[in-house]
Amino acid sequence: MIELARLRLRGVYVIVAGALLLLVGPAYQALVLGFAYSATAQAIDMQHTFGPYLLWISQNVGNDRLFRLIDLLAFVLAVTLPGPLVKALYPEKGQVALLARLAGWLGFGLYALALLVGVVTSATAASAYAAATSASARASVASGFAANYAFETILSRVIGGLLLAIFVGVISTRLARTGAAPRWMAFIGLVVALVTFANAVLFALQPTRASTLTSALAAAGLALWLGIIGVLLTRARVWPLVELIEVEIPDGAPTQQTPQTPQSPQSPQTPTAQPTGPRAGEPSQAQ
Predict the structure, then answer these.
(1) Measuring CA to CA, which residue among 222, 204, 195 is closest to residue 107?
(2) For 117-126, what is each residue's pLDDT tens digit?
């Protein structure tokens, strides 16, 4: 079935996305970018200055760009998930399905957009900072970059983070209610949604920060959730993940449709024959 094949393919995509965010990105940061990069991030958080960060970028343009492109690829792959996943979990559509689909598309999309913008703005600002010949000129470049950095943070980690919290929360609740996935999977999703929401609030309070108390946990949690969902989808055997059955309501009221987790087909049972004549000891009735 085409829909089932598409769903499994999206599962592969988000497994790759989760691996990029959880394994490849952090490993690249630790092994390639090294301590110098971490020191510039600490300068942003503790000293509220972007000068060391811009100077580092000017000396490591290629490494910085590749680091951003790793995250960008992950979110581009993830943005393909909401449509097929919501369709598989909400075959009856409705407002909740529309909310989940839009929140997922916009959440992942805003992260990707901010990363794409950052590839251009960071290299441009770093080049201008390195070329500045006075302290006032460097301060002006750093101030302008700080404004762009705050905008990208609000676009991705605040607005995008809030939307992803909604998406993950709605999907996890649906998985728990329909039984389309184990309850522990839904529980992990709800925890990830709460941490992502808290992280968005913290960044909203200080959008020029490089990190918050929950940023590392939120990033790792989202990556883990993507990987778990990906495994679930690649192992899917039926589409949709929940199916609709007609519920009869007496007194001529309209029927309603309720989602049920699809069951494997069972062999039909032969009905037991019922006697049609009068029972022994009972008189026959006249017609």
Answers:
(1) 222
(2) 999 999 999 9
